[in-house]
Design goal:
five-stranded mixed β-sheet, alpha/beta, elongated, 367 residues
Length: 367
Amino acid sequence: MLPTDYMAEALALAAQGSGLTSPNPTVGAVIVKDGAVVGRGFHTYASLKHAEIVALEQAGERAKGATVYVTLEPCSITGRTPPCTDALIAAGVSRVVAGMVDPNPKVAGQGIALLRNAGILVEMAESASATAARLNEAYIHYMRTGRPLVMVKAAVTLDGKISAPDDNSGWITSEKARAHVQSLRHSYDAILTGIGTVLADDCLLSDRSGFPRSRPLLRIVLDSQARMPVDSKMVRSVHNGDVLVVTTSAAPEERRAALEAAGAQVAVFDGLDGRTDLRQVIAWLAERKYLSLMIEAGSRVNWAVLESGTADKIYFYYAPKVLGGMQSLPVAGGVGRRRRADAIRFRDVQLHRITDDEFAVEAWLVK
């Protein structure tokens, strides 16, 4: 195998940690000695051990003089476990190839420096850096900004509509597209919608990917008057406080108490014009180390998130349909921007084929 193949295997191992590492990063490691793989590992939050430690334990004495391919710079700090740099040095590895520098300011190059000071050759695999960063975009964003990555997801027609004025039974996108959404949900820590969507659809907002998670998907509802029915599917499915209803001080106390009695968390975040304050929601999530938030809401909430700059990116699934008309709701409603020059702009646009006739657009907001 070529060196690039070993790093590709490490990246594939890291991907196996999707949904299993938050609030830690996903990391994969491969140890190679005399042209043969002697150790493999990837991190999961539940197992405590970092990818390098799992691989070192598998390699045993064969790690001495070996090369370690790891997707993220080895940690140099003591957290729930001792530093991986200490273990690599003690094992006597001769070379470490890393996919990217750890954006955690407590590490940020210190792990590389410690390894080099111990006489270990350290190289950066620049060809793998983009993929390594993609695997940990939420972790990177959190470390650089101190807040979770916020993405707006929507299923839309070709003319940008998400809802018809009369009958909204059925789906806009295909079953395959909806399955893809579940895999996307699986990689996020929290999901948010508005009370209008809950009252209209009685949705669960759950992770139905079938894959295990390191922490429950936190389901959040913006509900200024605490209208959330206690017999809704979401409240009836509460487990370990995985539903958060965000309301205002104007909401009747008895409704808030009823939701809490049913097991939901209730937070009062007053915003402008009697609405809930999404920025306080983001801060609440950040304090609890939720790395990512997906918005799956209606036209009004989507606009508020995009217009305020609270969102960081979008993921829109397009179906080969047109609703037309002036009453069908657009993906983002509200007052909108009055001039073309003031349009919300995006960068790093990517197109993803979902089926032969469906595609998704992924892009980052220009801020």
